[in-house]
Amino acid sequence: DVKVTQSSRYLVKRTGEKVFLECVQDMDHENMFWYRQDPGLGLRLIYFSYDVKMKEKGDIPEGYSVSREKKERFSLILESASTNQTSMYLCASSARGARSSPLHFGNGTRLTVT
Amino acid sequence: GDSVTQMEGPVTLSEEAFLTINCTYTATGYPSLFWYVQYPGEGLQLLLKATKADDKGSNKGFEATYRKETTSFHLEKGSVQVSDSAVYFCALSGGRTGTASKLTFGTGTRLQVTL
Fold first, then answer.
1. Could you tell me whether strands A109-113 and A56-57 are parallel, antiparallel, or unpaired per DSSP bridges?
2. Is some CB atom of chain A closer than 8 A to the CB atom of B7?
3. Contacts from B53-61 at CB under 8 Å and sequence distance 24+?
4. Residue pairs spanning A and B at CB distance below 8 A
5. Is B44 within 8 Å of chain A by CB?
6. What is the pLDDT of residues A31-42, one digit of tens each?
């Protein structure tokens, strides 16, 4: 089974801090994604990556950046955390190829910014 | 752009009741359609998928049929169990060339099944 592991289940950070959310997958997937999940809004795509050192903006990239130095690892960075970034963050991966390739998700990181 | 609309919850049903969760979509091209389920405290996991018109996806007693004429992909189950209590997300992928594998999600529908 594909395993997508997010380094923290819960995080509490202060406004203005730099925050790193880490994600690792073990199935040699080319594609990796960061979503945030908010009540009533569903999942919204922040950034994604199709290959090492490659990144593309999703629907809501403002206030975030990403890093993909190795194929298995995709990091989400909040340069200066703000309270409106309090959310559940979900990492996912998928194999390159057809539109029908499913996403495999981690269990999420619940971030609270105070 | 692509979008997915699903019925708002929560949906509360008694065990063994029939379930329908409505999902409609807007997309250009020929998207693939998915239902994901999120159990409490977990990430999303794929429940079923359909890749072309008239395909039926099925898994664990759940079914959904890709209806291009009505742009719908409604989720159904004939007899729900307490263990089906979760949040269900409808999603589509890559209606247009070059957007393969990037999913657009609906807002989710919470299902609660009681004894």
1. unpaired
2. no
3. B57/B33
4. 67
5. yes
6. 999 999 998 888
> Cα-flanking dihedrals φ and ψ of residue A8, to 5°?
-130, 140
In angstroms, what separates the C-alpha of A110 from chain B's closest C-alpha?
Answer: 10
| pLDDT tens column, B53-68 | 999 999 999 999 999 9
Tell me the DSSP string of A23-92: EEESS--SEEEEEEEETTTEEEEEEEESSTT--EE-S--TTEEEEEEETTEEEEEESS--GGG-EEEEEE
Measured in angstroms, the CA of A108 and the nearest CA of chain B are apart by: 6
Residue tagged 């991966």 (tokens): A93
- Residues of chain B below pLDDT 70: 95-101
Distance to chain B for A19, nearest Cα, Å: 21
Residue to substitute from A21, A29, A30, A43, interface B, most B β-carbons within 10 A:
A43
Closest Cα in chain B to A29: B101
Q: What is the 8-class DSSP label of residue A101?
A: P
**Both tokens assigned to A33:** 């994604």
Tokens representing A66 are: 């990403």
DSSP B55-102: -EEEETTEEEE-BTTTTB--EEESS--GGG-EEEEEEEE-SSTT-TT-
Question: Which residues make beta-bridge pairs with B36?
Answer: B46, B89
How far apart, in whole angstroms, are the C-alpha atoms of residue B82 and residue B71? Answer: 30
Return the DSSP state at A97.
S
